Amino acid sequence: MFKNILVPVDGSEDSLNAAKAAVTIREKFGGKMTLLHVIAKRPEADPDKDKREISIKKIETLRAEGYKVLEKAIQSLGKDSVEIEAVLSWGNPADIILEEAEDKGYDLIVMGSRGLGAIRGMLLGSVSEKVSKSIKCPVMMVKEL
After folding, report:
1. Count of domains in the chain?
2. CA nearest 126: which of 113, 139, 140?
3. What is the 3-state secondary structure (H, E, C) of the chain?
4. Cβ atoms 111, 8 nearer than 8 A
5. Rounded distance, CA 91 to CA 124, Å?
6. pLDDT (tens digit per residue) in 30-71
7. What are the φ and ψ backbone dihedral angles of 138, each rounded to 5 degrees?
8. pTM for this predicted structure
9. CATH number for position 59
10. Which pLDDT score, from 0 to 100, does residue 115 have?
11. Which range of residues forms the domain containing residue 10?
């Protein structure tokens, strides 16, 4: 039934729990699973320094932080993580998740009900809420396990 599962991760406990839940689903139905981390920050330029140099360093830092989030999620899953694809992207998290899901034809999105931006989510509408209201495939929201 669920042969292609997308799991957005942001390093929060809810997103790690979502990844663990997705592994259980994948084990039951087979198929593949993709972890997606979206870097939402934009590199800020320091007006006193060369903007290009600052941007390159900031981009490298954000990219390294993004890979750490993906690696933490993979490590939390244990031995089955070998068969899991990891994708790092930039942009608005909800928009990127929706684009990824549409482009790759996922059967299921498993995501944490709350990410790291809980206060911002209350003010602007959470990523999980926007995704669940805008996507055609099923979305499973995971809280604390």
Report:
1. 1
2. 113
3. CCCEEEEECCCCHHHHHHHHHHHHHHHHHCCEEEEEEEECCCCCCCCCCCHHHHHHHHHHHHHHHHHHHHHHHHHHHHHHHHHEEEEEEECCHHHHHHHHHHHHCCCEEEEECCCCCHHHHHHHCCHHHHHHHHCCCCEEEECCC
4. yes
5. 16
6. 889 999 999 987 655 555 556 666 678 888 999 999 999 999
7. -65, 145
8. 0.84
9. 3.40.50.620
10. 58
11. 4-142
Q: Are 58 and 46 in contact (CB under 8 A)?
A: no
Residues in Cβ contact with 130 at an 8 Å cutoff, skipping those fewer than 6 apart: 94, 98
Closest by CA to 131, choosing from 106, 103, 101, is 101
pLDDT, tens digit, 9 for 90 and up, residues 76-112: 998 655 579 999 999 999 999 999 999 999 999 999 8
The b-or-e profile of 93-129 (16+ CB within 10 A means b, else e) is bbebbbebbeeeebbbbbbbbbbbbeeebeeeebbbe
Which tokens is 78 given?
A: 């244990």
